[in-house]
Amino acid sequence: MSLGLRIRTIRQSMNLTLEQAAEACDLDLRHFQKIEAGTLNIELVTLVRLSVGLRQPIAVFFGGMARRDRVPRRR
Q1: Residue 68, exposed/middle/buried by CB under 10 A (0-12, 13-18, 19+)?
Q2: In the chain, what are the domains?
Q3: Averaged pLDDT in 10-residue chunks for the chain of 75 residues
Q4: C-beta of residue 61 within 8 angstroms of C-beta of residue 72
């Protein structure tokens, strides 16, 4: 799954519109749309903004577990 598709999936699972997500991430709406479409390479600072705005660890954008999916396990 591409980075843009992962971001879109996370945004949709949070029931956020493109506008709401862009605002939460402090990004321009068109910039956010291009990220989701996969037509824009992003810088690390943008990745951090996405992480903070969507309240997800950066690892989730690369296939890690989403915050809501984490279950602490001890053996």
Answers
A1: exposed
A2: 3-61 (1.10.260.40)
A3: 92 96 97 95 95 95 66 46
A4: no
